[in-house]
Design a protein that fits this description.
The protein is mainly beta and 114 residues long. The protein has one domain: Jelly Rolls (Sandwich). Helices cover 0% and strands 57% of the residues. The protein contains no helices and 8 strands. Strands 1, 2, 3, 4, 5, 6, 7 and 8 form an 8-stranded mixed sheet that branches. It starts with a strand and ends in a 6-residue tail after the last strand.
Length: 114
């Protein structure tokens, strides 16, 4: 489920409160979308994750609540609240839950001109 909206600019936000958990779901709210990239806040209910994928852009993932397993090219890393990782472009990756968790995902689309 994805909900595009724009948060109010120029004021502070408590990021973890921008998104709620929905039972048996992954919820994605894109809070800033530009041609050069986007920032999304995501919530994952227990047992929910994202399937393995490869994207042509670097992706910054930061856990803002809970714990998740990030697998990049078969190498697993467990991240907890406050930890982050850069998922390199063109690398197989998947996100697995370790209970409920929330994360910020930032995709950078510039710098990959061929």
């Amino acid at each position: 489920m994805e909900n595009n909206f724009e948060i109010e600019k120029g004021i502070g936000h408590i990021t973890v409160e921008i998104i709620e958990y929905i039972p048996n779901s992954v919820v994605i709210k894109t809070i800033l979308k530009k041609s050069t990239g986007n920032i999304s806040v995501m919530s994952f209910d227990s047992g929910e994750g994202l399937t393995e994928k490869t994207t042509p852009f670097d992706t910054f993932a930061q856990i803002i609540e809970g714990k998740a397993e990030i697998v990049i090219n078969g190498v697993s890393r467990v991240l907890v609240t406050g930890e982050s990782i850069v998922i390199p472009a063109f690398q197989r990756n998947l996100i697995k839950p370790n209970g409920r968790f929330k994360m910020i995902q930032t995709v950078i689309k510039s710098g990959y001109e061929l």
